[in-house]
Amino acid sequence: MTPAELSIDSPMGEIMDALPGARRALFSRYHLGGCQSCGFSPTETLAELATRAADAPAEEMLAHILAAHEHDKAMLIDPAEAKAALDSDSPPLLLDTRTREEHEAVAIPGSEFMDQDYQQRLFSGEPGRAILLYDHSGKHVLDTCSWFHGHGLKNTRAIKGGIDAWAQEVDRSLRRYRLEIE
Fold it and tell me: Taking every annotated instance into account, which residue ranges of this chain make up the domain Rhodanese (predicted)?
């Protein structure tokens, strides 16, 4: 489903698939979706969620998550564009935001695993440095990218579709895998 096809009657699962940052947007404005008490199921519609949330305006909620999606798109970079940036004279830092086990099993060549110690060094370094982030499928990397922006690293972008898209579009020699729980 595309963002244009979404409505207040769309199930939250479809909304989350079409708009990966929707949970972050709903939580930031309406405090919905961030914890067990304000969470939602994939089958609950946006209208049902709005009703349950003290009759929040469902149409306004949809407009907000669509606007947030447009903002998120500015943080995304297509795999081919990321490859060109990495091949340039001043390549960005490439960081893997997945688990250590995933990174050790398969990684984009030249990427570094980002653990909490690495994050601390980043935030004490050069704030204008170009950084590319990736995860498995692009579902969680926008949250990390947004977090980087919020901490002053404004030249950070997220690879759209993660390492899975990279393996399909840029480097077919990379092994693809499926996560049982994502």
Answer: 88-175
